[in-house]
Amino acid sequence: MIRHLLKLVWNRKRANALIVAEIFISFLVVFAVLTGLMMFGTVWSDPIGFEWKNVWDVRLDFDIDGGQKADKELHDSVMRMLVEARSFPEVESAALSNTPAYSFSNTNGTREIDGRSVDMNMDDVTDDFAKVMKLKVIRGRFFNDEDEAANFKPIVIDRNAAMAIFGTVDAVGKKLQESETEYSDVVGVVEPYRKDGESSLPMNFVFFRTSPTGKYGRLGSHILVRVRPGTPAAFEEKLATRLQQIAPKVTFRVRHMDAMRLNMLRTRFAPLVLGGIVGLFLISMVTLGLTGVLWQNVTRRTRELGLRRALGASGPAVHRQILLEVALLATLAVIVGTVVIVQLPILGVFRVVTPAAFTMGFLGALAAIYGLTVLCGLYPSWLASRLQPADALRYE
Questions:
Q1: What is the predicted pLDDT for the residue at 309?
Q2: 9 pLDDT higher than 70
Q3: Alpha-carbon distance 170 to 139, whole Å?
Q4: Considering only CA atoms, which of 235, 213, 214, 237 is closest in space to residue 226?
Q5: For site-directed labelling of 384, which of 153, 236, 307, 369 has its Cα 20 to 30 A away?
Q6: How confident is the model at residue 303 (pLDDT cuts 50, 70, 90)?
Q7: C-alpha dihedral (305, 307, 313, 314), degrees to nearest 10
Q8: Looking at per-residue confidence, does 312 or 155 come out higher?
Q9: What angle do CA 76, 78, 84 make, to 5 degrees?
Q10: 59 has which bridge partners?
Q11: Is the alpha carbon torsion for 285, 286, 287, 292 positive or negative?
């Protein structure tokens, strides 16, 4: 039976090639959209490790590349702005950060740990960063004034980084090698920190301390301010005016983190929405094209199908034959699509999506494509099952 179906499909290869190509492209698009939805669905409910409500971001317009330290004038100006921001009664706490949450900026790198490459995301922050973002310290402590007089360079890592670097061993007190001659001492571990929020995958995060005196650490280009609940929007102008008076040479703009979060989510979901629209368009085209081609095939094959009925084939048998031909076309497209999809893990797709989301997206795409093709073949196959031997004699 399968050999017979393959021969029938091959004999109409020109007509079937376009259908197979449409199903193949639809399969890839549906897989991409479903995988993205599964990924966001699986990570959305996980804790992000910080609280973004009532946090404002004062973005300073300067950039220091390559870990270079700021000059003394700029450093002193930014520190005066930070102290002034803390002086307002509307402000609970304030801190510096170089790559804050929802900012679309990242500092990352790779460390060789016992022969393993560990990817890390990093940020340079001041001591009150944990208060501003309400980080939960689970072991050790966060940065404080004692670190200024210490003879080591302190770092704080999140639980994911602790597990990736040190395994199940307590990370507090351990050293992390930064270069051939430089080491940092872990003083604390916080809950997993996902700086890009609900739409981001778990990451290994490392916090470096920005020294108030410029002893070490990069100068943060963002002043994060946690305001008290109910603070009116008019306070933004008051804050901006005072900071500009303190440092007239530094330009900046104030953003609310809830707006930054919304912008991040829109940016992350935009490709999914666009992919969904393209997927619906392709599926609609495949549905119409496949139904039309099958309907036309049934009409052209009246003699063949009537002869089968005359030789004793029942209506349900003809019905199954047409559906199997449709399923065979879908299978050919899915085989090619699967060959393409299985290459993605080799290209590092698991850095972007989880294996669970990848698997669920693949299975969902399979179900969607086979369900669509069978649905398209129901009516043409029903028409074919109603043909009688006499219809073949009358057909011209």
A1: 59
A2: no
A3: 8
A4: 235
A5: 369
A6: low
A7: 60
A8: 155
A9: 100
A10: 222, 253
A11: positive
As a whole number of angstroms, the distance between CA 87 and CA 346 comes to 53
The pTM assigned to this predicted structure is 0.76
**Mind giving me the DSSP string for 119-158?**
EEEEEEE-TTHHHHHT--EEEE----GGGGS-SS-EEEEE
Residue that the structure tokens 């220091």 belong to: 64
Comparing C-alpha atoms, which of 327, 333, 307, 344 is closest to residue 381? 327
Angle among Cα 50, 56, 61 to the nearest 5 degrees reads 115
User: Which residue, 50, 96, 76, is CA-closest to 217?
Assistant: 96
The dihedral formed by the CA atoms of 268, 269, 271 and 276, expressed in degrees to the nearest 10: 160
Torsion 205-211-215-221 (CA) sign: positive
Dihedral, CA atoms, 236, 238, 239, 245, nearest 10 degrees? Answer: 140
Strand partners, 183: 177
Q: What is the pLDDT of residues 196-220, one digit of tens each?
A: 998 888 889 999 999 888 777 788 8
Yes or no: say if 198 and 48 are a contact pair by the CB < 8 Å rule. Answer: yes
**Token reading at 390:** 């006499």
Q: What is the mean pLDDT of residues 361-390?
A: 77
Is the pLDDT at 306 greater than 80? The verdict is: no
The span from the CA of 97 to the CA of 296, in Å, is 65
**Structure-token pair, residue 246:** 């303190």
Q: Which two tokens stand for residue 13?
A: 């290869």
The dihedral region occupied by 214, where left means phi > 0, alpha psi between -120 and 50, and beta the remainder, is left
Helix (H) or strand (E) holding 254: strand 252-256
Q: How many CB atoms lie within 10 A of CB 360?
A: 18
Chain Cα centroid distance, residue 209 = 29
Q: Round to whole Å and give the CA distance between 383 and 385.
A: 5
Burial of 56 per CB tally in 10 Å (0-12, 13-18, 19+): buried
Q: What are the structure tokens assigned to 22, written together?
A: 């449409």
- For position 347, what pLDDT does the model report? 79
Please report which helix (H) or strand (E) contains residue 59, including its range.
strand 55-60
Which uninterrupted H or E stretch holds 183?
A: strand 183-190
Determine what percent of the chain falls in helix, strand and coil, rounding each to the nearest 5: 55, 15, 30
- What is the amino acid identity at position 383? L
Instruction: Kindly report, residue by residue over 113-148, the tens digit of the pLDDT.
Output: 777 788 899 999 999 999 999 999 999 999 998 888
